[in-house]
Amino acid sequence: MTILVDADTRVVVHGITGKQGNFHTKLMKDYGTNVVAGVSPGKGGQEIWGVPVYDSAKEAIRAGNANTSILYVPAPSASRASLDAIEAGVKLLVIITEGIPPLDTMRVIAVARSKGTRVVGPNCPGIISPGSSKVGIMPAEAFSRGATGIMSRSGTLTYEIAWAMTKAGLGQSTVAGLGGDAVTGTNFIDALTLMKQDPETTGVVIVGEIGGDDEERCAEFIADTSFDKPVIAYVAGRSAPSEKRMGHAGAIISGGHGDYESKVAALSEAGAQVAERPSDITRLAKSMFR
Amino acid sequence: MVKGKEEARKAASKMLSSEVRGEPVSKVMVSHYVEVEQELYLSLTLDRSAASPVFLACPQGGVDIEETAKTNPKAIVEERVDLIVGFTKSEGEGIAQRLSLPKELHSTFASICSGLYSLMTDLDADLVEINPLALTPDHQLVALDAKVILNDEALYRHPEFRNRESTPALGSEFERFAQGKGVKLVDLGGNIGIIGNGAGLTMATIDLIKTSGGAPADFLDVGGGASAEEFERCLSVLLDYPRVKLILINIFGGITRCDDIAAGIREALSKHATRKRMLVRLVGTNEAKGREVIDSIPDAEIESFVSADEAAHRAADLAREEP
Fold it and tell me: Number of Cβ pairs closer than 8 Å across A and B?
């Protein structure tokens, strides 16, 4: 068992005729992902890498009997495309697109919640359950099948960490790139809840970043639920200057959370092992996850 | 507070020749005098963890609002907005009630809230803030100061603000220098230039240099799938800016291809007479091809690394040696 994506995942690619959509459809198929249909308004009827293309999300999802959508469409049309996919009934919507205005993302998340669709992203690398399914843009070579669950707000840093673990013989059950935007459909707690229930995952790596309070909330969750799998965390941005963009309201709503110290303190208190450097994660995992 | 034209002129010209946090004052707002009975705080912002807009209000507004929020968080009234339903008048009246405003003002206050909500959703604002919102002795509500932050990512659908983007750029000299060449970076004050791909990896690189005792000059994320041309432009900025003594490039190839990055390095160096020491770590997609290109660059001081830790260590050591 893995989480979010597995051999039963049937994917529709939205924006399949675009440069990124086209390129990654090929890579996902090469990996063995079940890509069943594509969407590109006005360009239906053709095939891309053997995948039939439809004009609308509804047609594509129905024809392919899909349960998952991945979005490569440009930011201005991403909100519409997301709502179409949710409306058509997919269970999982992975939004790769970056630069979507936060209010659009919030609307998509609100509708998704009301329809029971899980959103991952936006501005994320997607999800991979190594050896079984890849719904995203990550370089496949960095990953191998194993027992570590990785969840991350970063893209390349995740590849870096997974690659180091793979080289050291530590495979991954599922790697979930949750996205670098301040507003995302799935946060650390959501992913951790799924990993808690997954028997294949025996240890968890959390890759956080400064900003927001996702790490602090996640730490609270680990402590409150007596999370029973060992957790290693890394937080990027220790030496970044603090940003004060949001006026008084930003300071009020963050309530003192968001900086490196606050995140590391919360995670350590909850019992997670905090890695100083990304390269420390493999070393810690070797001793903790066996 | 001034009386009459002459006093206003004097006060304004004094302000115009002063600086606020290092920035010269270029405009002065003059408003008529308002007698104030109570100063309130009211804003609408994005609650990112709840994924919804949120009203924040407080009976004690003014400059000390952040302090109030810290010492007496219960004084802050929060009201989240359901984006599917929208903001309703009764929710606005509810906020007024929780602020203990006089009953006859509840409806007016709710209209102000609705106005803020329309402003946010129509203009794609991240923040709409009135501080202070004054309650006058004759029971009027008057906005004495306000702040609106528009969302950068939504500017494409607001042509009305396009001209505003050309107002003088803020930021340090280094940041403006980069901006002039179409490159966005954050000035960190040190002398080790850094380019990475992906915000997380770039931040991690900066952290590694700091823990090794080095001083990072910048945060520069070339983003996903950077072409040779884009990379060349980024590197040129660091080559041209005198404070940068050496350059560390940390790339994990995914969509970004290492050979494209290497080609960008070669191009930039072929066009620049200035030579700076460069430490390059290229791993991932087309890594071998990338290294081949790097090795073929004539008379450049480039050291290649496989480990990010070692590259950062070396950068910090070299920066210490060079004054």
Answer: 182
The interface predicted TM-score (ipTM) is 0.89
Task: Classify A6 as helix, strand or coil.
Answer: coil
Q: What number is the average pLDDT over the span B185-203?
A: 93
Top CATH class of B34-153 equals alpha beta
The secondary structure element, H or E, covering residue B295 is: helix B287-295
| Amino acid identity at B99 | L
How near does any CA of chain B get to the CA of A226, in Å? 22
- Which of A259-268, B72-81, B206-215, B248-257 shows the lowest per-residue confidence on average (mean pLDDT)? B248-257
Asked if A203 reaches chain B (Cβ–Cβ under 8 Å), the answer is no
Low-confidence ranges of chain A (pLDDT < 70): 1, 242-247, 250-256, 290
Residue A111 and residue B84: Cβ atoms within 8 Å?
yes
Catalytic residues of B: 41, 129
DSSP B188-203: -SSSEEEEESSHHHHH
Going by pLDDT thresholds of 50, 70 and 90, the confidence category of residue B165 is low
Say which CATH architecture domain B173-321 belongs to: 3-Layer(aba) Sandwich (3.40)
CB atoms within 10 A of CB B315: 31
Domain residue spans of chain B: 34-153, 173-321
Stated as kind and residue range, the H or E segment containing B128 is strand B125-135
What contacts B152, CB < 8 A, 6 or more positions away? none
Q: Which residues of A are catalytic?
A: 248
- Respond yes or no on whether the N-terminal peptide bond of residue A130 is cis (omega within 30° of 0): no
What is the average pLDDT across B76-84? 95
Q: Is B101 exposed, middle or buried (0-12, 13-18, 19+ CB in 10 A)?
A: buried
Residue B10 CB-density burial (10 A; 0-12 exposed, 13-18 middle, 19+ buried): exposed
Residue B323 confidence class, pLDDT cut points 50, 70, 90: low
A103–B284 CB contact, under 8 Å: no
**The CATH number, out of the four listed (3.20.20.80, 3.10.20.340, 3.40.50.261, 3.40.50.11600), of the domain defined by the range A126-288:** 3.40.50.261
Residue-level pLDDT at B275: 85
Distance CA B240, CA A214 (A): 39
Residue B243 DSSP code: T
Residue in A20, A212, A246 closest to B49 by CB: A212
Of B65, B66, B207, the CB nearest to A239: B207
Tally the residues of chain B.
323
Residue of A nearest to B283 (CA): A160
Q: What's the confidence (pLDDT) of residue A255?
A: 66
Taking CA B111 as the corner, what is the angle to CA B107 and CA B117, rounded to the nearest 5 degrees?
145
Whole-number Å distance between alpha carbons of B299 and A15: 45
**Local structure of A82: helix, strand or coil:** helix
Write out pLDDT tens, residues B251-300: 998 778 888 899 999 999 888 888 899 999 999 888 899 999 999 988 77
pLDDT over threshold 80, residue B93: yes
Does A167 touch chain B if contact means CB atoms closer than 8 Å?
A: no
The three-state secondary structure class of A120 is: strand
Q: Which helix (H) or strand (E) holds A173?
A: strand A172-177
DSSP letter at A205 equals E
